[in-house]
Amino acid sequence: MISEEDKKIHINFIFRKQQHSYYSVERVFADVKKKLSSKIIQKDLYLPYFSRGIFDRIRNIQYCRKYSKQINHITGDVNYLASFLPPESTVLTILDCVYQFNTSGFKRWFIWFFWYYLPVRMCKHVTAISEFSKQETVKITGVDPSKIKVIYVALPEGFEPHYKVFNSECPVILHVGNSPNKNLNNLILALNGINCELWVVGSLTDENILKLKDNKVRYQNYIGLNDAELIDLYRECDIVSFISLYEGFGMPVIEGQAIGRPVITSNKGSLPEVAGEAALVITEPEMPEAIAEGIRKIISNSNFREHLIAEGFENVKRFDCRKLAAQYEEIYTQCTFR
After folding, report:
1. Given this model, what pLDDT does residue 102 score?
2. What are the backbone dihedrals phi and psi of residue 72, each rounded to the nearest 5 degrees, phi first?
């Protein structure tokens, strides 16, 4: 007779070396892990070295090899580890393929082979956080699409409806993130002549600050926020901007929708898939004029705002944490050992 203890499944969640940043791959699984059933015994493994250079990556591989006789879930960013662990007991999650498109020459081939082609082909259990990321992975690796299961990112805890009277005279626009793909400079150009205040989460560059001053955009900059502080910004803003040029998922879209804010986003990457019919989607996000037109529409049209908010509440139901945790748990039960 199998005891209750024998029915338990031990999972190692393998994360990159910890970084002091709110916007990290660790958040993809933070809330899902809380909703896994009691039969899943969890352990978090943080790599001892940053994924920089050959030797530190070899050290990370050696570290993970110590756990090769256990079930391991590689949570993203360090995909290369999957090629050195038993395929039947390893789960690999693909976040996006941005590394492949942001490099060139030998480095691009290296990333393609060790981050995508080899891990996806060798690992038996592969997930992607959006249909877009899945199709990108299929396109660059040639793997059978049926091998990759799409499991969305769960809406984090604390993002709940919070009513606020819209400030149509001087709305606060919240823009989350400032990596090159976040398209902040085009948003700044779009706000020239629009009476508003821009709140940017993420370190501003000298170029950003110069553009803000040249375009006479009032702004606040927020760095190193904790969860509660970020949620407060969503509650106090009037519009959420996430007009990124490339995303594997796009958390700010559903976070804004869950709070009850109209969201403006782009048609790039996974964003239309994640936003559904519940956001204003800019089809030319490289054009400041197109962004400005969308923002003016949200500010001036109260019926349109209310429509976006209502649809947003419906859309976020797709990202229920318990449902997504159950999908991962099903995969864990399929893991076996040689």
Report:
1. 77
2. -125, 135
Whether 18 is in a domain gets the answer yes
State the amino acid at position 310 in one-letter form.
Answer: A
CATH number at 276 reads: 3.40.50.2000
Residue-wise DSSP of 26-38: HHHHHHHHHHS-T
C-beta neighbour count of 167 within 10 angstroms: 14
Do 309 and 330 fall within a single domain?
Answer: no
Q: How far apart are CA 249 and CA 270, in angstroms?
A: 5
Taken in order 57, 60, 65, 70, the sign of the CA dihedral is negative
pLDDT digits (tens, 9 = 90+) for 152-205: 999 999 999 999 999 999 999 999 999 999 999 999 999 999 999 999 999 999
Q: CA angle, 71 as apex, 322 and 100 as ends, to 5°? A: 80
Shortest CA distance to 238 belongs to which of 262, 265, 264?
262
CA–CA distance, 274 with 206 (Å, rounded to integer): 32
Report the C-alpha gap between 286 and 292 in whole angstroms.
11
Q: Rounded to an integer, what is the distance from CA 289 to the centroid of its chain?
A: 27
Residue in 79, 82, 73 with CA at minimum distance from that of residue 111: 79
Answer yes or no: are the C-beta atoms of 268 and 246 closer than 8 Å. yes
Provide the domain limits for residue 303.
Answer: 172-319
Asked if residue 261 is part of any domain, the answer here is yes
- Sheet strands side by side (includes 197-201): 218-222, 197-201, 172-176, 239-242, 263-266, 280-282
Is residue 11 scored above 90 in pLDDT? Answer: yes
- 321's CB contacts (< 8 A; 6+ apart) are 31, 32, 34, 35, 154, 155, 157
In a domain, 160, yes or no: no
E-assigned strand segments in 52-109: 71-74, 90-94
In a domain, 249, yes or no: yes
Q: How far is CA 5 from CA 11, 28, 47, 331, 338, in A?
A: 14, 28, 28, 19, 21
CA distance 309 to 302: 11
